[in-house]
Write a structure and sequence with these properties.
Elements lengths: L6 H21 L5 H8 L3 H7 L3 H23 L5 H18 L3 H5 L13 H19 L9 H15 L5 H16 L4
Length: 188
């Protein structure tokens, strides 16, 4: 939110974001923008002024979680063996995405831009954070050289979105992730 905004605009932004966090937690990425506006006590045009797209709103809602994942990647960089460090981080991404409805959609590629990882700030932050972990794993020969952070995020997002309606989405997502990892990078 730009610092130069009037006080009422800043209050509206904060109120909209607070309501959006609750609505996305309850209803996922498809939370009604109209309901968010009503609950926040603003018009839908005010919501659109602050968040011109659904993705912009989801990115704002997910910002703290993405920052926590960036910090986690930083903590893991250079620790232990490179395969374990990368997989620990990806497991954190998976766990956060299952628990935080809307995060997977904020990270998802919608097919619009030529470079899917940089289409939004969440994905760009994740790529920057995981880059050192992936480069180290590739250098150590435990991950194929052509694997990208975008590939890994897409894999996690796909698993999360495919399991979100399962009776136990976390267990199912982690099982599928372990199966994918066994094919991606079998233990030495």
């Amino acid at each position: 939110m730009p610092e130069g905004q009037r006080a009422d605009a800043r209050r509206n932004y904060t109120r909209i974001l607070t309501v959006a966090e609750r609505e996305v937690a309850a209803h996922g990425a498809g939370a009604s923008l109209e309901q968010i506006a009503r609950t926040a006590g603003v018009g839908s045009a005010t919501v659109r002024r602050h968040f011109p797209t659904r993705r912009a709103l989801l990115e704002a809602v997910s910002r703290e979680r993405v920052e926590a994942l960036r910090v986690r990647a930083e903590e893991l960089t250079g620790q232990g063996d490179s395969r374990t460090a990368l997989l620990d981080w990806l497991d954190s991404v998976l766990s956060y995405s299952v628990a935080a409805r809307g995060l997977a959609a904020a990270l998802a590629y919608d097919g619009a831009p030529a470079d899917p990882v940089h289409e939004n700030s969440c994905s760009a932050t994740m790529e920057e954070a995981a880059g050192p972990l992936l480069r180290r794993a590739v250098r150590d020969g435990v991950v194929a050289a052509d694997v990208t952070v975008g590939d890994l995020i897409t894999l996690v997002v796909g698993i999360v979105l495919a399991t979100e309606h399962h009776p136990d989405p976390a267990a199912r997502a982690h099982r599928l992730f372990r199966m994918a990892v066994a094919g991606l990078s079998p233990p030495a």
